[in-house]
Amino acid sequence: MSGKIKTQIEFLVALQDLDLMIKEIEEVKELGFEVKGEGLSSLTRARDELVQKIKKPLLAAYERLRNRYKRAIVPVKDDNCLGCFMKLPTSITAHGRTDKEVLVCENCGRILYWLT
């Protein structure tokens, strides 16, 4: 992968993982269970630090998608978007494998990344 694009995609995947963990903790609290320790505040601090490393336009796109979908950034497997499970056009899969730009699914709009 191209260094900068790979790093931005890796940051987004990590951010999504943090967001999902934070949401799970909040849902457990809503059910009336006590969450002990520094878990939520540690995750929130880690999220704040990570957000600073992501380019603003990419972060804005991620946040928009996150409001719409549970997962805003999804892997591609066998040339299929694992967000909507649609087959991606060859033009996207050829560009995606070069990792020179951030690509989105033409069907669902999610940000794509390729598993290596």
Uncertain ranges? none
Cα-to-Cα separation, first versus last residue: 10 Å
**What order do the strands of the largest sheet run in, or round the barrel if closed?**
2-1-4-3
Look at the structure and give the mean pLDDT: 88
Strand composition percent: 5-15%
Helix percentage range? 40-55%
Number of strands: 4
| Largest β sheet strand count, sense and barrel closure | 4 strands, mixed
Strand pairing plus helix content: what structural class?
A: alpha+beta
Number of domains: 1
**Any idea what the radius of gyration is?**
16 Å
Overall spatial form:
elongated
Name of the top-level CATH class: Mainly Alpha
Question: Which architecture per CATH?
Answer: Orthogonal Bundle
What is the fold-level CATH name, i.e. the topology? Helix Hairpins
H and E order: HHHEEHEE
Q: In terms of topology, how is this protein built?
A:
Elements: H1 3-30, H2 39-51, H3 56-68, E1 73-77, E2 80-81, H4 90-98, E3 103-104, E4 111-114
Parallel strand pairs: 1-4
Antiparallel strand pairs: 1-2, 3-4
Describe the structure.
By secondary structure, this protein is an alpha+beta fold. The chain has one domain (about 5-115): Orthogonal Bundle (Helix Hairpins). The chain contains four helices and four strands, in the order αααββαββ. The protein has helices at about 5-30, 40-50, 55-70, 90-100; strands at about 75, 80, 105, 110-115. A four-stranded mixed sheet has the order 2-1-4-3. It is elongated, with a radius of gyration of 16 Å.
